[in-house]
């Protein structure tokens, strides 16, 4: 299709420098998929820093002040906001595909992962963020989210309806299953909210036949030192391996050969890891408070849903290893499971149709006005 015959689209991204996670992968893939379909598309990205806390007000104001209506004589026909504070932008045709809001103000408030207290300064700041979110998100022509969990948050905290549009797997149909190996695989950013520490601290209690392989990089300096101290304390270096960032081919191989995949973040927004593991025929070890992961994992059917502490995780893993009927049942479910989601709900054709308005929202209440 001739370039320019379809609308010009800007995808809006707020990224923490030196940090790469699922949101960055999602935005890159969305850009490529829109481009492949003939849209004029680019990404507008600004750095995001949540500290000091009052700095987020300046970043909100910066996005609000941007004029994204035209560039070099080319009109911008659609902007797609993704996460806080990109949706602060004013545009006559703004759609949000919400990854998450500023979580510290909402679902992380009052948890050990939150950094806002109940004092008057933080309470005032929280109110300003919530009020600005409400105004900006009501302006959207349509509001979509990446999961039912994110939609529930939007309804709970702002009273706004939205529709979930699930992101397809990053590597499509490339995932496969192989011979069951002797290691648990952990994939993702290494930070406190992803709780990689739980599986590391569980390893002394887990049968020594199982090892742990960790894919990902730390984005909090203290977490790396803490994990290494735990490994040293329990003499686990012969059983725990940090692989850092790996290639797509290496990741496929690691999933394919794992005994199980550990993914137990706190109140996850979406998490590609869950679906990548299932697509590779591997059970997922997760926690009772892991958010969207629980939309896909059923306890003792295609994984384990355990209390978020090392004793429960170790006992669950050991049971999966030693209880052969349980292991057979879980692996049989994984071999014979239907498609994780209906094809129409997890394809890029579906995503693009929703975001561009070719396929309107199912509920008119999702529309602005």
Proportion of helical residues:
25-40%
**What is the total number of structural domains?**
2
Biggest beta sheet summary: 6 strands, parallel
| Euclidean distance between termini CA atoms | 34 Å
**Strand residue content:** 15-25%
* Broad structural category: alpha/beta
The top-level CATH class of the largest domain is Alpha Beta
The tally of helices reads 11
SSE arrangement, N to C:
EHEHEEEEHEHEEHEHEHEHEEHHH
Give the CATH topology of the largest domain: Rossmann fold
CATH architecture descriptor of the largest domain: 3-Layer(aba) Sandwich
Explained architecture:
By secondary structure, this protein is an alpha/beta fold. It folds into two domains: 8-168 and 347-363, Rossmann fold, CATH 3.40.50; 183-336, 3-Layer(aba) Sandwich (Rossmann fold). Helices cover 35% and strands 17% of the residues. The chain has eleven helices and 14 strands. It has helices at 22-36, 55-65, 120-138, 148-158, 196-202, 221-233, 248-257, 272-279, 310-322, 324-336, 348-356; strands at residues 8-15, 40-47, 70-71, 74-75, 78-81, 94-98, 142-145, 163-164, 183-187, 211-215, 240-244, 260-262, 284-287, 303-306. A six-stranded parallel sheet has the order 2-1-5-6-7-8. Strands 11-10-9-12-13-14 form a six-stranded parallel sheet, sandwiched between helices. Strand 7 (142-145), helix 4 and strand 8 form a beta-alpha-beta unit. Helix 5 crosses helix 9. The longest helix has 19 residues, at 120-138. It is globular and about 65 Å long. The protein starts with 7 loop residues before the first strand and ends in a 13-residue tail after the last helix.
């Amino acid at each position: 299709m001739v370039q320019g015959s379809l609308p010009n689209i800007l995808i809006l991204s707020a990224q923490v420098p030196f940090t790469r996670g699922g949101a960055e992968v999602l935005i890159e893939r969305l850009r490529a998929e829109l481009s492949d379909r003939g849209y004029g598309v680019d990404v507008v990205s600004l750095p995001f820093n949540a500290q000091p806390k009052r700095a987020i007000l300046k970043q909100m104001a910066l996005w609000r002040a941007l004029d994204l209506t035209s560039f070099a004589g080319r009109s911008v026909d659609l902007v797609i906001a993704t996460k806080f504070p990109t949706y602060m932008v004013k545009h006559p045709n703004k759609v949000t595909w919400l990854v998450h809001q500023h979580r510290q103000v909402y679902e992380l408030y009052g948890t050990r992962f939150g950094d806002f207290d109940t004092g008057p300064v933080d309470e005032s700041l929280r109110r300003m963020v919530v009020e600005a979110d409400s105004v900006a998100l009501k302006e959207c022509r349509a509001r979509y989210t990446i999961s039912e969990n994110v939609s529930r948050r939007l309804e709970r905290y702002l009273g706004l309806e939205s529709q979930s549009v699930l992101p397809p797997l990053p590597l499509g149909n490339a995932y496969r299953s192989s011979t069951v190996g002797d290691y648990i695989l952990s994939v993702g950013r290494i930070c406190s909210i992803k709780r990689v520490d739980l599986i590391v601290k569980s390893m002394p209690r887990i049968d020594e036949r199982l090892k742990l392989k960790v894919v990902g990089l730390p984005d909090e300096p203290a977490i790396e030192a803490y994990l290494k101290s735990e490994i040293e304390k329990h003499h686990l270096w012969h059983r725990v391996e940090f692989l850092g960032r790996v290639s797509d081919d290496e990741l496929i191989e690691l999933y394919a050969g794992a005994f199980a995949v550990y993914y137990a973040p706190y109140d996850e927004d979406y998490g590609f890891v869950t679906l990548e593991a299932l697509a590779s025929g591997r059970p997922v070890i997760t926690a009772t408070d892991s958010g969207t992961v629980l939309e896909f994992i059923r306890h003792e059917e295609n994984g384990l849903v355990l209390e978020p502490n090392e004793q429960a995780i170790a006992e669950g893993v050991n049971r999966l290893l030693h209880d052969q009927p349980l292991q057979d049942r879980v692996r049989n479910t994984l071999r014979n499971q239907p498609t994780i989601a209906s094809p129409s709900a997890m394809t890029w054709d579906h995503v693009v149709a929703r975001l561009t308005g070719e396929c309107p929202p199912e509920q008119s209440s999702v529309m602005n006005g």
